[in-house]
Write a structure and sequence with these properties.
With 233 residues, this protein is mainly alpha-helical. It folds into two domains: 149 residues; 69 residues, no CATH class. It contains 13 helices and no strands. Helix 4 packs antiparallel against helix 7, helix 5 packs parallel to helix 7 and helix 8 packs antiparallel against helix 9. The longest helix has 20 residues. It is globular.
Length: 233
C-alpha cells in the first residue's frame, strides 16, 4: 500500500494488512481501536455485561487493571451463554455481543480484526445495509478513518519538539484526553482546537499535527496527535 492509497483507503481490512501499519501498531492501539469500534454500536449491546467488557478493555489499555480482570470478565460471557440468556437476541445484538466478548478474550491483531468485523456486521444488520446499498461505503470508511485517527500516516510519522511541550500544551492535552463524551467516547473538538492554538503559539508549524487536531474527527482515545504530545505508546 502506497501513502496515497493509505490516505484515501475506505476499507479497514487492507489497512490492517499494510506493512507500514504492522511496523508501528502496539498492543494499546489495538485495544483502544477495538473499544472505539464497540462504542460506535453502543446502543446494540444487550446488557451491562457487554458494555462493561468494553470499559474494562479501555482500563486495561491504560494499565488500570491486569489480565486477570479480563479473564474474570470472560467467565461472565460463558455463564451468560450457559444460562441461555443469549436466546432471543436479534442478529445485530448477537454480533454486538460477540464483539464485546472478543474484547476480553483476544489480543493483538486478532482482537482488532474480530471486534471490527463483528461491529461491521452488527451495524449493517441493525440498519439493513446490503453490499453496495446507500450507507454501505460510509459505514466501511468510518472504520478506516478510525485507524487513521489512531495511527496517523505511517509513511510520514510526525515528531514533536521538546520546546513545544510547554506546561499549557501538556495540561490542555491531558484534559482533552481525559474528558470525553460518553458513551460515544469522542474527544471534545473545542478542546482540541484550543490545544492546536497552544501548540502553534509554542512554535509548532507541523501542518499534519495541527491539521489533525483541528479536523472534525471524530477523535477518540488513542488519537495519534494526543498520544504524541503526551508520550503514550
Amino acid at each position: 500500500m502506497t501513502e496515497a492509497e493509505w490516505l484515501a483507503c475506505a476499507d479497514d481490512d487492507p489497512m490492517w494488512h499494510s506493512e507500514p501499519l504492522w511496523l508501528k501498531v502496539g498492543a494499546r492501539q489495538y485495544q483502544l481501536y477495538a473499544a472505539a469500534c464497540c462504542r460506535r454500536i453502543w446502543p446494540l449491546f444487550p446488557d451491562r455485561l457487554c458494555r462493561g467488557a468494553v470499559e474494562l478493555l479501555e482500563r486495561f489499555a491504560e494499565g488500570a487493571c491486569d489480565r486477570s480482570a479480563l479473564e474474570q470478565a470472560e467467565e461472565g460471557f460463558h455463564d451468560y451463554i450457559h444460562n441461555g440468556l443469549h436466546e432471543g437476541l436479534t442478529e445485530a445484538q448477537n454480533m454486538a455481543f460477540s464483539a464485546a466478548w472478543h474484547c476480553v478474550s483476544e489480543g493483538g491483531y486478532r482482537l482488532a480484526s474480530l471486534v471490527a468485523d463483528n461491529c461491521h456486521r452488527a451495524d449493517r444488520e441493525s440498519r439493513g445495509l446490503k453490499s453496495g446499498a446507500p450507507g454501505w461505503a460510509e459505514e466501511r470508511r468510518a472504520y478506516s478513518d478510525l485507524i487513521r485517527e489512531m495511527i496517523g500516516n505511517p509513511f510520514r510519522p510526525a515528531l514533536v519538539q521538546p520546546a513545544w511541550l510547554t506546561p499549557a500544551v501538556t495540561s490542555l492535552a491531558t484534559a482533552a484526553y481525559e474528558e470525553r463524551s460518553l458513551p460515544s467516547g469522542e474527544l471534545d473538538l473545542a478542546r482540541l482546537a484550543v490545544l492546536a492554538d497552544a501548540l502553534e503559539e509554542a512554535g509548532c508549524s507541523d501542518p499534519d499535527l495541527l491539521g489533525h487536531l483541528r479536523s472534525p474527527g471524530p477523535h477518540v482515545r488513542g488519537c495519534w496527535a494526543i498520544d504524541l504530545i503526551l508520550g503514550k505508546q
